[in-house]
Backbone:
């Protein structure tokens, strides 16, 4: 991904590629949906807990227009091989489908399942300036982007929260990834300069200004993605469901997110399996940490927010078992560096990215020193992103 391309350059290239792929670029329209970074509240969204993500200014762009026949034509400027595939609005079944096109196609399928089948096909070219498979939710940005494109091209009656739900539904049921609602919600509902304090139990939310008082959000991509990513995620979800069933024998709850840490301690013996108990503990304590972290941020206590980020990492590493040696190096070495307020793994885990809050004047030495240690210990060149918090999906007018 070329982070340095400006939006104007991306749109110019996209238009060119669209014309090369589909004959011309007449009447084409341009759209964008953001990726996201989660500041705190990891693996709490499918446990009815709180999350605190924000949309980024990087994400996925599309050039798209309707067709007069049943063809759905999809082209990506990213990735290796198999950039282009063609489908029919009349055959959306999962059988025989694979690869990246399952994300946009799954959204078309989910719209159809909600009584909004497409009357005609469309053609779309996409380009993402966000790394894939790294925990910044390129998949959710692609789903929300597709939903937004369809809404705008066909005038479908869906609001942004509905687009988030459609994206999650298709990722769960079309792609088989049992993600919670956080990623799609953050992409669809993002607001510049703000993080979203979302209660996944009822989807109530507030926007919290992210005022870091002379500090920046820095994302570090470990560039590793361990095989376990999807199966490990789905496993964790099952483990939490089993822990909930154990607890429900002694306390009337619907989700782990309903328990305070004190209540959990009082009832945890109902979970006989030690591993399962540890994972439930993460879900409960991480939820409490998230609520507290948002309070600290609102009170301007950035250091306290950072300490909670560090605690979140330790819990994900030791109790929830979703970190890995490379990510632990990035977080633990970051903690030793000057000007680092907090650093943690972000996203589903098993590789991907860390997010840190770093003093403005320490950012360049952070990137340089952490990059060097990481290279020495792993042989891998990490990528650094000094990110801005952006808004949700939008159409982009071009001259
Ligand atoms: P994450 O959401 O953390 O980036 P996922 O594994 O959930 O990681 O999603 C990554 C997948 O999304 C890619 O493997 C690819 O199939 C799809 N994808 C995302 N963005 C693009 C893109 N610009 N072009 C093609 N495929 C994409
Ligand atoms: Mg994803």
Residues:
């Amino acid at each position: 991904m070329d982070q340095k391309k400006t939006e104007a350059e991306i749109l110019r290239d996209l238009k060119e590629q669209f014309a090369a792929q589909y004959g011309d670029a007449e009447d084409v329209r341009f759209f964008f949906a953001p990726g996201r970074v989660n500041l705190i509240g990891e693996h709490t969204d499918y446990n009815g807990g709180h999350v605190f993500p924000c949309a980024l200014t990087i994400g996925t762009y599309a050039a798209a227009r309707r067709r007069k026949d049943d063809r759905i034509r999809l082209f990506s400027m990213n990735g290796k091989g198999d950039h282009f595939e063609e489908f029919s609005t009349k055959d959306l079944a999962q059988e025989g489908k694979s690869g990246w096109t399952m994300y946009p196609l799954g959204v078309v399928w989910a719209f159809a399942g909600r009584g909004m089948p497409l009357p005609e096909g469309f053609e779309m070219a996409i380009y993402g300036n966000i790394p894939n498979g790294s925990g910044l939710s390129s998949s959710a940005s692609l789903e929300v982007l597709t939903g937004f494109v369809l809404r705008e091209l066909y005038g479908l009656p869906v609001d942004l929260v509905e687009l988030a739900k459609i994206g999650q539904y298709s990722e769960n049921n079309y792609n088989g990834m049992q993600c919670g609602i956080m990623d799609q919600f953050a992409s669809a509902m993002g607001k510049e300069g703000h993080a979203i304090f979302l209660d996944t139990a009822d989807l109530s939310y507030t926007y919290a200004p992210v005022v870091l008082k002379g500090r920046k959000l820095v994302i570090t991509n470990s560039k590793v993605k361990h095989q376990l990513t999807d199966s490990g995620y789905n496993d964790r979800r099952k483990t939490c469901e089993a822990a909930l069933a154990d607890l429900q024998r002694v306390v009337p709850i619907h989700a782990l997110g309903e328990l305070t840490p004190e209540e959990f301690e009082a009832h945890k013996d109902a979970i006989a399996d030690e591993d399962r108990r540890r994972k439930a503990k993460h879900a409960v304590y991480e939820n409490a940490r998230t609520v507290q972290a948002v309070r600290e941020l609102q009170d301007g206590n950035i250091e306290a927010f950072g300490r909670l980020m560090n605690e979140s990492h330790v819990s994900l590493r030791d109790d929830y078992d979703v970190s890995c040696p490379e990510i632990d190096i990035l977080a633990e070495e970051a903690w030793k560096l000057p000007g680092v307020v907090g650093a943690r793994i972000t996203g589903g885990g098993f590789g991907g990215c860390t997010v840190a809050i770093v003093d403005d004047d320490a950012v360049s030495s952070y990137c340089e020193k952490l990059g060097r240690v990481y290279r020495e210990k792993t042989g891998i060149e990490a990528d650094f992103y000094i990110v801005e918090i952006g808004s949700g999906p939008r159409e982009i007018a071009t001259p």
